[in-house]
C-alpha cells in the first residue's frame, strides 16, 4: 500500500515528511480518527483511465479514481483544528500553526509535499444522509467546498444583510451579497423599484403610467401640427444667447434629448438625466396634453382667422415679446393661440414658427383672454387667479377714486369691452380704470335698463381708501351699506361709520336683487 | 348685534390694501331671475372668481373679529362656489376656505384634535408629493442649479469637500453636483455628503442612489445619514472634520425656526431694513451653530413672501396672492384632471395654507418672510453675502427657457436670485460665507 516509488533516495529524503503525510492519508482512508468509519466505499464505478489531459468533471461527479472521504459534521464546521499549546490560538491549517510556533521559539516543522508522487485526488461527501452530495458519485472535490456546502445547506444562517434582510450561513457569501445588494435596480417610470430584470419587464408591460404616456405620445405624433415639431426637438440650442425662438425646442418632455452646448446644458441636462423619466412622464403627461389641447384648439376651437396676423409671423425673426393681436371679433382667442390659429388655418407654417407658436400656446393659458395688453409683457388671462386678484384690487383701489359704482359681474360683456378698451393693465391711471369700469358697468346696466347715476357726491379720493377700508372691514359690510350698495345677505348689522360715500339712488333695487341670496 | 372686537394691532398698515376695500364693495349681479335654490349657477367663471375673493376676505374679517355666525354664513357660500377640481380661483378658494374653517375650529381645541385624531402620516406619500413638486415646478431645479454652482465655485481648488444637506430628500441635486465635480478640470475632490432628514427610508434611498453614481464615476465619496428633525439637530451629529471645506444647503427649512409662542411683533409687508426682526431665539441659535462650523459657503433657498404677519388678515391677503400665483402655474402646466396636480395642491399647498391661516404660535411653522428680512438675519449671524455668479444666473435662466417654464422669471436682488411668476416673487436663493 505504499505509494512511494521504488527510489531509495526519495524514500529516505522524503521519509520524514512524506511518510508522515502518507500515513495521514492512510489514516483517513482506513480508519478515520474522530470520524465516522463507516463511509469508505470504493468509488470506482466507472473505470476511466486517467488521461493526461484532465477534463473537467461535472459538479458533484468526482473523478472515479479519487479517494472518497467522509468527514463528520463536527469536522466540517470546525474552524480551528490546529491549536497552539502555548497560547491556545487556533488555526485552520497546520502550516499556519507551525509558522506561529516559530514565534514562541518552539520547534516547528513545515510539511512539504513531494511533487514526484501522484497525489491521489480526494473527494468529499456530505454526511447528511438525505443530501444529494451524500452519494459518492456526487461527492465534491474540494475540502473548502464541502465545508461551505455543509454550512449553506445544513447549517445555521448567522449572517444577515442589512439592506434586504437576506440571511447567509457562509460569511463570504454574505459579504459578496452586501457588495451588490441594491446596487443593481431597475426603476419603472411609475416609480416602482425592482431588483430583477424579469419582474421589471413584466411590470412594465402592464404598467399604467407607461400606457398613458404611450397613448399621449402616439396621439401627439398623430397630430400633424406637432409632429413636425417633434422632429425638430432633437436639436436643443442653448448656445443661442439671443432668443429662444430660434431654438426649435419644444418644452417639457422633449427638451432633454439632444443637448448641444456642453457646459450649460450639462448642468441643466444633469437634472434631466437625474430624473429624466419622471420628468418626462410628468411633463409629457402635462405638457403634451397641453400642447395637444393647444393644437387641437387651434384647429377646432379657434377657427376664425384674420389674416392680418400672418404677416407678423411670416418672417423667422421675431422678438421675444410677442405682439398680442387684439381681436375684437373673437374674445376667446388667447394671445398666441390666436396667432397659432392664424397659422394653422393658413396652411402648415414653417417649423420655426410652428415651434414658436406651439411654445406659446402651450404656455399661455387657453382660457378666454381679454387681456390683450400690448404694453405689458404679462398676458394674464382674467381667469387666472392672479388676474382676478389684481382686478379685485384695482376695483378696490378705484373704488376710492372712482365715481362709478363698480360692477363686478359685468358678465360676458366684460371681455369684449375690456378688449376694446385695453383691459386692466397694472399701472393704469385711475381714470382709465374708471372709464373701463364705467364701460363695464354701463354695458351691464344697459342690459337691464337701469339708470345708475355715478355717485359723484362725496367721493373723495385717496383718503377713503386709506383710512376706512380696514375699519370697514372690521365691521363687515358697513361702508357698502352706507353707500347704499348693500349685500346684506350675511346678516351683518349696521354700524354707523361716517362714510364719505353718498347714498346711492339704487339702493332698494340692489337689495331686492340680493334678497334671495340672503 | 354682533360683538366686534378688534384684532391685535398692526391694522393701520394694512389699511391701504386695495383688496380690503374690494371686500367691502357691493357685488351687483346682472339680470338674473333670482332663484333661491341655486343662485350661483349662472355665474360666469370670472364673476365667480371675484365673488370668491370677496367672500374669502369677508369671511376672514368675520373670523378675525369673532363674529362666527357671519363667518359661518360666508363659509357656506364659499363651499358652494369653490371646489378642489374647478378652475384656479375655485381651487385656491377651496383651500383657504378649509383653512379658515380650521381656524374657527381651533377655538375648541378638543374638537379640533378629535377631528384629526385618526390622521396618519404617510411617509411615502410625503416623499411622492415632494417629488411631484420638484417635477411640476422649476423652483427646486433652479435652486439646486444655483446651489451647486455656488458650491462649485467656492470649492475651487479644494480637495476635501463636505456638503451638508439640511433636508435631504431629493437625490437629483447631489447627483448633479457629483457629476459636476467629476468634470471639473482639477478632478473631483474627496466628497462627503451628510444628509439630514427625519425619515430613515428617505436617507437610505438617497444613499443608495448617490453611492451608485459615485461608484460609476469612480469618485471617492461618502454619504453620512443623520436621522433627525432639524430643530433637534445637534451640530455634533454632523461630524464636521477639520481640514475639509464645508458647504451647507438649506432648502425651505429655515422658516420653520421662526415658529415660537411669543408673538414676535412683526409689522407687515414691505421690508424696510429698519424693521425689527420678529422672534430671535431659535433661528439665531441655529444660525450661530452653523456659523460655528465655519462653512465656506451656505446656500439658502426660502420662500420670498411675507406670510408671517401677526394678524390673520395680513397673512391671508399676502398668501392669497402667493398661492394664486402657484396655482396659476399649475393650471398652465398640468391638466385639471391630473391626480398628481391635486395631490400637490392639497398635500403641499393646502397644508401650507392651513398652517399659515389656521395656526398660531409654535404650531405655525410656515413662517415665510421676505428675502430682505432673511438677508438681515443671516447677516447678523455673521455671514457675508456671496453674490451669485453671472454664470449661475445664466444657467438658471436657460433652465427656465429650456424647460419652457414660461411665465417664470429670475430677478436679481442684491446678489440673490428671486424666482417670480409673472412678477410675483415666490422663492429666493442666496449664498453666504462665514465671516470671521
UniProtKB/TrEMBL annotation, chain A:
Residues 82-104 form the C2H2-type domain. It comes from the Eukaryota. Keywords: DNA-binding, Metal-binding, Repeat, Transcription, Transcription regulation, Zinc, Zinc-finger. The keyword Transcription regulation applies. Residues 323-332, 395-406 have a biased composition (Polar residues). InterPro entries: C2CH-3rd_BIRD-IDD, C2CH-4th_BIRD-IDD, C2H2-2nd_BIRD-IDD, IDD1-16, Znf_C2H2_sf, Znf_C2H2_type. Signal peptide: none annotated. Residues 32-49, 333-351, 361-371 have a biased composition (Low complexity). This is Zinc finger protein JACKDAW. It comes from Raphanus sativus (Radish). The gene is LOC108844364.
UniProtKB/TrEMBL annotation, chain B:
The keyword Transcription applies. Keywords: Transcription, Transcription regulation. InterPro entries: TF_GRAS. Residues 130-195 are annotated as: VHIID. Residues 205-237 are annotated as: Leucine repeat II (LRII). Residues 358-433 are annotated as: SAW. A motif (VHIID) lies at residues 161-165. Pfam families: GRAS (PF03514). Belongs to the GRAS family. This is Scarecrow-like protein 3. The lineage of its organism: Eukaryota, Viridiplantae, Streptophyta, Embryophyta, Tracheophyta.
Amino acid at each position: 500500500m505504499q505509494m512511494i516509488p521504488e527510489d531509495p533516495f526519495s524514500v529516505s529524503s522524503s521519509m520524514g515528511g512524506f511518510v508522515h503525510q502518507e500515513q495521514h492519508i492512510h489514516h483517513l482512508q482506513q480508519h478515520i480518527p474522530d470520524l465516522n468509519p463507516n463511509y469508505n466505499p470504493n468509488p470506482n464505478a466507472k473505470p476511466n483511465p486517467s488521461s493526461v489531459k484532465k477534463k473537467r468533471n461535472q459538479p458533484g461527479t468526482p473523478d472515479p479514481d479519487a479517494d472518497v472521504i467522509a468527514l463528520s459534521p463536527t469536522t466540517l464546521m470546525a474552524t480551528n483544528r490546529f491549536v497552539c499549546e502555548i497560547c491556545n490560538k487556533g488555526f485552520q491549517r497546520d502550516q499556519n500553526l507551525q509558522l506561529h510556533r516559530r514565534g514562541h521559539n518552539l520547534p516547528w516543522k513545515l510539511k512539504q509535499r513531494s511533487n514526484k508522487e501522484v497525489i491521489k485526488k480526494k473527494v468529499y461527501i456530505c454526511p447528511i444522509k438525505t443530501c444529494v452530495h451524500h452519494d459518492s458519485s456526487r461527492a465534491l472535490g474540494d475540502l473548502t467546498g464541502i465545508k461551505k456546502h455543509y454550512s449553506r445547506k445544513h447549517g445555521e444562517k448567522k449572517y444577515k444583510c442589512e439592506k434586504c434582510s437576506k440571511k447567509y450561513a457562509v460569511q463570504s457569501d454574505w459579504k459578496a451579497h452586501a457588495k451588490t445588494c441594491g446596487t443593481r435596480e431597475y426603476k419603472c417610470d411609475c416609480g416602482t423599484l425592482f431588483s430583477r430584470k424579469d419582474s421589471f419587464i413584466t411590470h412594465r408591460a402592464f404598467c399604467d403610467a407607461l400606457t398613458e404616456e404611450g397613448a399621449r405620445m402616439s396621439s401627439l405624433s398623430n397630430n400633424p401640427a406637432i409632429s413636425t415639431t417633434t422632429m425638430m426637438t432633437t436639436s436643443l440650442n442653448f448656445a443661442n444667447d439671443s432668443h429662444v425662438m430660434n431654438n426649435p425646442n419644444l418644452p417639457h418632455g422633449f427638451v432633454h434629448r439632444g443637448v448641444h452646448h456642453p457646459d450649460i446644458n450639462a448642468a441643466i441636462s444633469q437634472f434631466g438625466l437625474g430624473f429624466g423619466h419622471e420628468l418626462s412622464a410628468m411633463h409629457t403627461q402635462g405638457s403634451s396634453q397641453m400642447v395637444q389641447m393647444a393644437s387641437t384648439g387651434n384647429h377646432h376651437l379657434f377657427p376664425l382667422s384674420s389674416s392680418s396676423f400672418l404677416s407678423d409671423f411670416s418672417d423667422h425673426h421675431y422678438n421675444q415679446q410677442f405682439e398680442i393681436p387684439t381681436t375684437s371679433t373673437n374674445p376667446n382667442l388667447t394671445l398666441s393661440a390666436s396667432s397659432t390659429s392664424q397659422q394653422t388655418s393658413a396652411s402648415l407654417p414653417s417649423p420655426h414658427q410652428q415651434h414658436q407658436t406651439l411654445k406659446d400656446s402651450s404656455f399661455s393659458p387657453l382660457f378666454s383672454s381679454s387681456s390683450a395688453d400690448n404694453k405689458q409683457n404679462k398676458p394674464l388671462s382674467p381667469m387666472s387667479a392672479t388676474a382676478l386678484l389684481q382686478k379685485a384690487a384695482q376695483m378696490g383701489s378705484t373704488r376710492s377714486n372712482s365715481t362709478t359704482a363698480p360692477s363686478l359681474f359685468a358678465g360676458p360683456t366684460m371681455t369684449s369691452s375690456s378688449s376694446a378698451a385695453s383691459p386692466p393693465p397694472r399701472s393704469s391711471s385711475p381714470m382709465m380704470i374708471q372709464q373701463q369700469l364705467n364701460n363695464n358697468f354701463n354695458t351691464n346696466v344697459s342690459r337691464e335698463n337701469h339708470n345708475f347715476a355715478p355717485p359723484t357726491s362725496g367721493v373723495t379720493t385717496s383718503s377713503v381708501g386709506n383710512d376706512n377700508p380696514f375699519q370697514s372691514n372690521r365691521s363687515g359690510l358697513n361702508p357698502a351699506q352706507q353707500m347704499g350698495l348693500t349685500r346684506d345677505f350675511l346678516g351683518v348689522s349696521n354700524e354707523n361709520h361716517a362714510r364719505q360715500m353718498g347714498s346711492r339712488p339704487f339702493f332698494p333695487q340692489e337689495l331686492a336683487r340680493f334678497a334671495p341670496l340672503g | 348685534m354682533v360683538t366686534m372686537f378688534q384684532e391685535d394691532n398692526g391694522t393701520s398698515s394694512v389699511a391701504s390694501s386695495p383688496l380690503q376695500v374690494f371686500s367691502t364693495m357691493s357685488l351687483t349681479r346682472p339680470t338674473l331671475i333670482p332663484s333661491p335654490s341655486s343662485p350661483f349657477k349662472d355665474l360666469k367663471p370670472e364673476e365667480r372668481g371675484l365673488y370668491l375673493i370677496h367672500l374669502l376676505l369677508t369671511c376672514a374679517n368675520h373670523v378675525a373679529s369673532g363674529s362666527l355666525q357671519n363667518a359661518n354664513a360666508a363659509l357656506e357660500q364659499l363651499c358652494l362656489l369653490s371646489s378642489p377640481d374647478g378652475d384656479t380661483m375655485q381651487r385656491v378658494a377651496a383651500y383657504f376656505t378649509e383653512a379658515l374653517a380650521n381656524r374657527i375650529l381651533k377655538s375648541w381645541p378638543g374638537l379640533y384634535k378629535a377631528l384629526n385624531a385618526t390622521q396618519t402620516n404617510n411617509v411615502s406619500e410625503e416623499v411622492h408629493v415632494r417629488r411631484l413638486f420638484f417635477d411640476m415646478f422649476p423652483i427646486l431645479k433652479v435652486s439646486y442649479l444655483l446651489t451647486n454652482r455656488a458650491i462649485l465655485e467656492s470649492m475651487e481648488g479644494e480637495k476635501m469637500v463636505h456638503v451638508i444637506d439640511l433636508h435631504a430628500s431629493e437625490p437629483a441635486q447631489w447627483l448633479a453636483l457629483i457629476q459636476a465635480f467629476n468634470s471639473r478640470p482639477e478632478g473631483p475632490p474627496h466628497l462627503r455628503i451628510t444628509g439630514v432628514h427625519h425619515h430613515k427610508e428617505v436617507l437610505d434611498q438617497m444613499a443608495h442612489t448617490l453611492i451608485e453614481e459615485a461608484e460609476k464615476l469612480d469618485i471617492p465619496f461618502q454619504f453620512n445619514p443623520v436621522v433627525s428633525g432639524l430643530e433637534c439637530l445637534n451640530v455634533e451629529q454632523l461630524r464636521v472634520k477639520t481640514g475639509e471645506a464645508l458647504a451647507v444647503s438649506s432648502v425651505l427649512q429655515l422658516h420653520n425656526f421662526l415658529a415660537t409662542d411669543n408673538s414676535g411683533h412683526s409689522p407687515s409687508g414691505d421690508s424696510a431694513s429698519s424693521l425689527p426682526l420678529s422672534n430671535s431665539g431659535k433661528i439665531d441659535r441655529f444660525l450661530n451653530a452653523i456659523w460655528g462650523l465655519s462653512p465656506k459657503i451656505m446656500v439658502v433657498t426660502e420662500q420670498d413672501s411675507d406670510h408671517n404677519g401677526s394678524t390673520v388678515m395680513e397673512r391671508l391677503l399676502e398668501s392669497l396672492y402667493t398661492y394664486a400665483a402657484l396655482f396659476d402655474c399649475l393650471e398652465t402646466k398640468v391638466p385639471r384632471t391630473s391626480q398628481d396636480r391635486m395631490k400637490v395642491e392639497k398635500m403641499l399647498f393646502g397644508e401650507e395654507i392651513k398652517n399659515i391661516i389656521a395656526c398660531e404660535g409654535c404650531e405655525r411653522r410656515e413662517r415665510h418672510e421676505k428675502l430682505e428680512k432673511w438677508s438681515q438675519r443671516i447677516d447678523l449671524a455673521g455671514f457675508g453675502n456671496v453674490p451669485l455668479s453671472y454664470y449661475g444666473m445664466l444657467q438658471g435662466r436657460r433652465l427656465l427657457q429650456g424647460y419652457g417654464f414660461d411665465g417664470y422669471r429670475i430677478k436679481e436682488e442684491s446678489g440673490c436670485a428671486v424666482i417670480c411668476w409673472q412678477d410675483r416673487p415666490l422663492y429666493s436663493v442666496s449664498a453666504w460665507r462665514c465671516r470671521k
